[in-house]
Amino acid sequence: MTVTDPNAFSQDDLAKQRFNPNLAGRYRLDNIFRIASWVATIAGLVVLAFLLIDVLVDGLPRLNWQFLTSFPSRSAERAGILAPLVGTVWLLFITALVAFPIGVGAGIFLEEFSTDNLFTRILEINIGNLAAVPSIIYGLLGLAVFVRVFVDITGGRTVFAAGLTLALLILPVIIVATREALRAVPDSLRLAGMALGATRWQTVREHVLPQAFPGILTGTILALSRAIGETAPLIVIGAQTFVPYIPSFREGGFSALPIQIFNWVGRPQAEFHTNAAAGIIVLMIVLLIMNATAIYLRNRFQAGKV
Amino acid sequence: MLFQLRSKRFAYLAASIALTFVVSSCAGGGTDTSTEAPEGETAEAPAEGGGDLSGTIAIDGSSTVFPISEAMAEEFMAANNGVQVTVGTSGTGGGFEKFCAGETQISNASRIIEADEIAACEAAGIEFIELPVAQDALTVVVNPENDWAECMTIEQLNTMWAPEAQGTVSNWNQVDPSFPDAPLALYGPGTDSGTFDYFTDVVNGEEGASRGDYTSSEDDNVIVQGVVGDPNALGYFGYAYYEENADSLKAVQVDGGEGCVAPSAETVLDGSYAPLSRPLFVYVSTAALEEPHIQEFVNFYVDEANASLVEEVGYVPLGDELTPLVQARLENGVTGSAFAEAAEGASLPEILAQ
After folding, report:
1. pTM higher than 0.95 for the full model?
2. Homologous superfamily of B55-136+279-353
3. With an 8 Å Cβ cutoff, are B28 and A249 in contact?
C-alpha cells in the first residue's frame, strides 16, 4: 500500500492555475515605476532651476563689489549687504562651534557608551521631539535664557546670543545624524577592536568615528544650512534691520541675511526687490561655500581611511 | 602610516578650531558692558568727519515707519560719524515692548500707543514724548479695467469690509446697485498690520473688526499682485505701494462726507483726504533725550529741512502747519499720548495744539 498525500495533486494543480508569470505585465509595472521616480526627481530639479534662473536674472546685474561692501541705505542703489553678511558668517561660526562638538559628543555617548535604560530612552524620545519643535519656540527659549538670564556672558541681544540659540535649534538634528552615521558602521569593527584589547574610547576614536565622520559632516552641514536660513528665532532674539556697522561678537546689534532680504522684499520700490534677489544670491553662495567645504573635508576623511 | 595620517587630520582639525577661537576672542575681546544701556558710549568710534557727538541709539518698532527712521539715521550718521544708530522691525507692538523695557530709546509706531503699553511704560518708569513724523494715505485700489468704482463712500467700503459682510457680500452690485454684476474679490493686509488696524477703525468703526474671508498678506506687494491680476479686485494699503505701481493700479477716490478726494501728497497735506490719511509716529524716551546725541538726532528727525527724506521713502511729510506744533511738543517736553486722549474725529492740528 503506497502512502500518498491526498492533497498533493490538488495543490500542485492549484499552483499551476494560480501562478501566472505575466512577465510583460511585471516589466510594464517596472517601467511605470521607473518613470514615476524619474518624474519625481525632475520635478524637484525643474522647480530648483526655475527658482535659480528667476533669482539670477533679477539679482545678478545688481551683484557687485559695492553691494557686498556697503551698509544699508534708503536708496536701493547705495544699499549693500555687508552688515547682514558679516552677521550671518558670525552666526555660522558660533553655531557650528557650539553645536558640532556638543551634538557629536551626545550622539557618540548615546550610540556607543550608554546602555539601554529608562533614562536614555526618555532622552532619545525627547531629542526626536526637539528636532520637530518650530524654530520660533527656540527663539523664545533663547530670548529667556541667553538674552535675559546670561546677559553678562552674551551681552544681551547680540550675535553671540543668537548663535547659541541657533546652535540649540540644530543640536537635535546633529545628534540624530551622528547616531545614524555611527549605526551604519558595522559592529564587527567594534568587536574586533575590543577583541584586541582596545578600550571602548580607543575603538570609537580609532575606528568607528573615522568611518562615521563623512556621514556626521553631511548631517551637520544640512543642519547648518537650515540654521542660516532661519528668520523667526533671530527676530525674537532681536536682530536689527538697519545696522550701519560690522557687528561684533557680543556687543551691539546685528543683522542677518534672511532678515535683510525679508525687509527688502516687503518694500514698495521695485529696486529693493532687485536688491532682495541679489541678497538671495549671496545667501546661496554662502551656502554653496559651506557645502563645498564640507564635501572637501568629507573627501579628505574618506581618502585618509584607506 | 595610518596613525600618522590620522594624527595629521586631527591636528588640522584642532588647528582650524583653535584659529576660529582666536579670531572670535579677538573680535569680541575687551568688551563686557551691555550696549543696551542708553548711556553706553562707544569710545572707539571713529571721530573723523563732522560732528563731535558720539554714542549709540537703538530704534525698533513698526516696519511701516522703518524706511523713515532708516533714512534719518543714514543722513544723521553721515553728518555725525561718532553716532551709531540701529533700527529694527519688530512691529509696533514688539517695538513698544522693548521700548518700555528700556532696551530702545526710540520706538517707531504706525498706530497710537495703547493703554496697556502706556501702563507698561509707566510701571518701568519710562516717560515718553509722542511725535508724529509723517503722514500716509491709506489707498483703496482697484484694477485699471474697473470702470465703475471711481469714487466710493466710507459707507460703501463699510458694506464691503464689515464683519457682517462675511459670506453675504460677494458681488459688486451688492455694494451699490449701479455697480455691475461682477464677483467681488477683496485683498488686504493681515491682522497684525497697523494698516489693518487703522482701516478697520475708520471704515468699520472698531479697530480689528473686519470680515475674514478676503485674501490677506503681510506683504503688501502680494496685495498689489492680486489686484493687478484680477479685474474685479479691490484692495487697500499704504500710499507708497500705490505710487510705485500707479501704472498698473487705479486708486479709488474716497468720499468721507465732503465729496470725492483722490489720495495724493497734496490732499493729505491739506487735510482733505480724510479720514483715510493717518499719522505715523515715533515715541522718544525723555530720559534718553537728556543725552546730547539722542537730542540732536530727534531734532534732526523733526527738522523741516529733512522733510524731503520722508518724501523720498514714499510718505507725506507733516507740512508747514504741523511741523512747528510737533517741534514745540519736543521743545516743551510734553509727555504722554495726546492722540490716545484725543476726542473722536479731532484733526491733527487740534490734537497737537493741546
Report:
1. no
2. Periplasmic binding protein-like II (3.40.190.10)
3. yes
